[in-house]
Write a structure and sequence with these properties.
This protein is an alpha+beta fold and 611 residues long. The strands form five sheets. Strands 1, 2, 9, 10, 11, 12, 21 and 22 form an eight-stranded mixed β-sheet that branches. Strands 13, 14, 15, 16, 17 and 18 form a six-stranded antiparallel β-sheet that branches. Strands 3-8-4 form a three-stranded antiparallel β-sheet, with no helix packed on it. Among the domains are: 5-58 and 174-253 and 415-455, FAD/NAD(P)-binding domain, CATH 3.50.50; 364-402; 479-610, Orthogonal Bundle (Helicase, Ruva Protein, domain 3), CATH 1.10.8. The radius of gyration is 24 Å and the shape is globular. The protein is 40% helix and 19% strand.
């Protein structure tokens, strides 16, 4: 199988016996992107991840490839320009994953609002220019109060002034990771999950030269030799560096926790993603997003000092979000018992980089005087009283101030950093999903420079802006048409329209490989035909080793299909046990692991305290 438990054994033999050009530690989105770029460029590449791919952070985001419109409140043009342009690149290389989904942003007359209707329109116009969607079907527009309420009748009308609608993209974060990982495997990379680093190794000159690892499936400990070592472990970045006894480590990470809650769309119905101020004058904004037949909302943003592997939703998180959402949608009257599922994730924020990142961007606010000058000049330009160059001049001469504070984690930068320690270990930290490709690009460039300088090994870096991930061989301009054609092919093979559409949207250009399993597997009792195919594809081609891998990260069953989850648990576990030849104890352990994850998602601990 291409990427399965069998290929894992082969990859481990390579890791044991050969010297890699680069060993990547961490299988979240940044590590996955780096593995793709390194493997495609011909480097002998290895990646180890102590959990499942994307399990730590990259499956726990708000599930958007977000354009950062609110940064334009402070005219952080460079940040937004880079973000929306990179978002377009990601949509081009993974067109089956980020999907255009215009966002509605209601505006309320309340103190310290992020936007007024006037400033929102200016920001959206600039945003459209940066995103190159002016004059297209995705161009922004405004809604009156009455139009907003016609679209979202549950929205609180008190103080509502209107809304803006602008382009944003929904995302399947864990799928983006696994599609990068699969493409890296196709290109010769050796990616192994459930493999924990326990020590950084060094050569006779004291340079980082690999790692000692423990196979968490077998308990075996062995060494991996590599010419360069890259640390892409997100919130664990400091932990990995602290394993390196050749360097003095100053901790740089300040992880914050974000929580999202899911309810049925009959409880809270929104027709499209919605984004608004909390109304609590705390500088935060909240998303309310439809997905499948559910609605989820978040996020919180609080400093986190607990177990990095297991951030949990606490009562104060629920109280905070329910207060905000019930204030904005008072007729919904959501209680904790309405919450069907949830997730908590960590943002790998950098405490000390003052908003900068190694791709040359900054994230700083500007003075009130500069804001006033920009707004005034833009208004005059729209009225024809000043020339375009005068707008450019006032934007160019904005006076900035550092945006970070020590007390409010919401003001921390989403910037990234690339550091090379004195023993040569490369650490890539910070950033956000939208920027993952550029972060990986900078890191792999550095690896290639080191290989050329120190080992006389020359590689030409691929153009990752045009190099599609696995499943991404779809025309980005014809995603709907090509996805529909893939779905129709499934209907012709005996799938229902719903099942075929589900698979085509999940797997993109890999969908024919999924359909091909119809000739090899029988429908599993208790599973639909689509779920049978999906499960076998996940085990054979996507390294799904445990039930939680499949039900949480290869698909979204636990989060957005909670109604049918309980009925498929037993058949999924039974088929995985048969396929992987689990012992009775393995089956018990993996079942218990899944039950614990579901209990956390269901908030059983908190609901028990309430009831």
């Amino acid at each position: 199988m291409v990427f399965s438990i069998e290929s894992r054994k082969q990859d481990i033999e390579v890791l044991k016996n050969e010297t890699l050009d680069v060993l990547i530690i961490g299988g979240g989105i940044t590590g996955a992107g780096a593995a793709l770029q390194a493997s495609a460029s011909g480097l002998k590449t290895g990646l180890v991840e102590m959990q499942d791919f994307s399990e730590g952070t990259s499956s726990r985001s708000t599930k958007l490839v977000h354009g950062g419109l609110r940064y334009l409140k402070n005219f952080d043009v460079e940040v937004v320009a880079d973000t929306v342009q990179e978002r377009a690149v990601v949509q081009g290389i993974a067109p089956h994953i980020p999907k255009a989904d215009p966002m509605i942003l209601p505006i309320y007359d309340e103190p310290n609002a992020t936007f007024s209707m006037f400033s929102l329109k200016i920001a959206m116009d600039l945003y459209d220019q940066l995103a190159n969607v002016t004059g297209t079907k995705y161009a922004n527009y405004t809604l009156t109060k009455e139009e907003v309420l016609g679209r979202e009748p549950q929205l609180n009308s008190e103080g509502l002034l209107g809304a803006g609608v602008y382009l944003d993209y929904r995302n399947n974060d864990a799928r983006l990771v696994i599609e990068n990982i699969k493409r890296a495997a196709e290109d010769g990379g050796h990616m192994v999950s459930r493999m924990k680093v326990v020590k950084i190794m060094h050569d006779e000159d004291g340079k980082a030269s690999g790692a000692e690892v423990e196979d968490l499936l077998t308990g075996e400990i062995f060494s991996i030799k590599a010419r360069t070592v890259m640390n892409t472990t997100g919130p664990w970045s400091d932990t990995i560096r602290q394993m390196d006894d050749k360097i003095d480590v100053t901790p740089q990470m300040r992880p914050t926790k974000g929580v999202h809650l899911v309810v049925d769309n009959k409880t809270l119905f929104v027709p499209q993603p919605t984004y608004f101020d909390t109304g609590k004058e705390d500088g935060r904004m909240v998303f309310v997003i439809p997905r499948e037949d559910k609605t989820y909302f978040g996020t919180t943003d609080t400093d986190y000092n607990g177990d990095l592997s297991n951030p949990t939703v606490e009562q104060e998180d629920v109280d905070y979000l329910l207060e905000i959402v019930n204030s904005r949608y008072p007729s919904a009257n959501i209680t904790i018992n309405d919450i069907e599922s949830s997730w908590a994730g960590l943002r790998p924020l950098i405490a000390t980089n003052s908003g900068s990142d190694y791709n040359g961007l900054s994230n700083q606010t500007i003075t009130d005087e500069s804001i006033d000058a920009v707004l005034s000049t833009v208004e005059q330009y729209q009225q024809g009283d000043v020339e375009r160059y005068e707008v450019a001049d006032v934007l160019k001469n904005i006076k900035k101030t550092n945006s970070e504070t020590e007390t409010n984690p919401s003001t921390l930068s989403r910037g990234s950093s690339l550091e090379i320690d004195e023993d040569g270990m490369i650490t890539v930290a910070g950033g956000k999903i939208t920027d993952y490709r550029k972060m990986a690009l900078g890191a792999v460039k550095k690896v290639i420079e080191i290989l050329d300088r120190d080992y006389n090994k020359s590689y030409k870096l691929i153009d990752s802006a045009t190099y599609s991930v696995s499943g991404g061989k779809i025309d980005p301009k014809k995603v709907d048409e090509e996805t529909e054609a893939l779905a129709q092919s499934g209907v012709e093979k005996g799938l229902s329209e719903f099942e075929a559409s589900y698979l085509a949207n999940l797997y993109g250009s890999n969908t024919p490989k999924v359909y091909a399993l119809l000739d090899e597997v029988d429908q599993i009792d208790g599973l639909t035909l689509a779920d049978t195919l999906s499960l076998h594809y996940a085990m054979r081609e996507e390294m799904a080793l445990r039930p939680s891998d499949f039900l949480i990260r290869r698909t979204n069953h636990m989060l957005f299909m909670r109604d049918t989850l309980d009925s498929i648990i037993e058949p999924v576990i039974s088929e995985m046990a048969r396929y992987h030849d689990w012992s009775d104890q393995d089956r018990i352990n993996y079942t218990n692991e899944l039950e614990k994850a579901i209990a956390e998602s269901d908030l059983k601990r908190l609901k028990g305290a309430v009831n």
